[in-house]
Design a protein that fits this description.
It contains nine helices and 18 strands. By secondary structure, the chain is α+β, with helices and mostly antiparallel strands. The chain has two domains: 85 residues, Monooxygenase (Up-down Bundle), CATH 1.20.1280.50; 194 residues, Methylamine Dehydrogenase, Chain H (7 Propeller). It is elongated, with a radius of gyration of 25 Å.
Length: 296
């Protein structure tokens, strides 16, 4: 039987059956051992059936072994044991030491003055996007590669902040960028994971309380409850796409408050003010109207 047909047959077997097949003869054993196509096919089929594991195929550690059949086999064997190990509690919990980690001489500098004047002492915000973890730690933002549990960059205060322009919030946009809101109304665009500053825009000088992204659309919320929609252009610029009076903040909720929060999807946008929620519903492209007001 031609090798191509055998590989096709083996690709439809489970791991135990493949192991039994390789014991049949030296030819089959050699074919199974050296076939990149076989192991990649088994990995792809497994992840197609187990949809939560499809993100594994995007990991750099998998991309690095595309031409190595022995490493692909090892990867597949570990892959099929994930659920078994989880159910049997045969796993370990990794701890990322964000306070002690150092990258190219950059690290967290702790001070008693900071701890006396700030309530965020350590990790106070983070975003997990696929295999990238971005965390705010004291006055730094750290970028972690979760495929290898290694820090990929640290953005220190001198990169994030300027005099009277401290970073107040952040989000990830289009997988390649980080957007930071500031206390004087600027939105700053950084490249991830390099941390390179690209550009900044502002609508006014109000404190930015929160930012969030969906696709290539960014929403920003200031401390008066005013919401602005921005679009990432092909030139990697942020363009204001909010029509006037699309977001009307009830007078009751328009008081100045730093700790406002924001989240949105293509269908809904929700903002907070103390114990209140304001919900907006999309009726046309990025044209949202207030649906209801509730107190929690």
């Amino acid at each position: 039987m031609p090798s191509e047909i055998l590989i096709l047959v083996f690709s439809n077997l489970d791991l135990d059956s493949v192991d039994n097949a390789r014991k049949t003869c030296k030819k089959w054993n050699s074919l199974i051992k050296t076939s990149v196509h076989l192991w990649k096919s088994l990995i792809n089929s497994y992840c197609a059936f187990n949809k939560p594991k499809q993100e594994i195929l995007k990991m750099q550690m998998y991309r690095n072994i595309q031409k190595a059949p022995d490493k692909l086999e090892q990867f597949y064997r570990k892959l099929v044991k994930i659920e078994e190990n989880f159910l049997s509690n045969n796993y370990r919990v990794r701890t990322l030491n964000c306070l002690e980690v150092e990258f190219e001489g950059k690290k967290v500098v702790r001070s008693s003055e900071w701890e006396q004047n700030h309530n965020y002492k350590g990790v106070y915000d983070m975003i997990l996007d696929k295999n990238r973890l971005v965390a705010s730690v004291y006055d730094t933002i750290q970028v972690w590669d979760m495929s290898c549990y290694q820090v990929a960059n640290i953005l220190p205060s001198k990169v994030l902040d300027e005099p009277h322009c401290a970073t107040t919030c952040f989000t990830l946009l289009d997988e390649r960028f980080m957007i930071c809101g500031t206390q004087n109304g600027f939105l700053k665009l950084y490249e991830i994971p390099s941390g390179k500053f690209l550009t900044q825009v502002k609508k006014n000088s109000n404190y930015i309380s929160d930012v969030n992204a969906s696709g290539n659309i960014l929403a920003s919320l200031d401390w008066y409850g005013d919401i602005t929609l921005w679009k990432l252009t092909s030139a990697n610029k942020l363009q204001n796409i909010t029509e006037e009076d699309k977001f009307q903040v009830p007078l009751l909720l328009a008081g100045r408050e730093n700790e406002r929060l924001l989240d949105f999807t293509p269908q809904f946008l929700v903002s907070t003010f103390k114990c209140h929620l304001t919900c907006y519903r999309e009726i046309h492209d990025f044209c949202l109207v207030k649906v209801k007001l509730c107190q929690t």
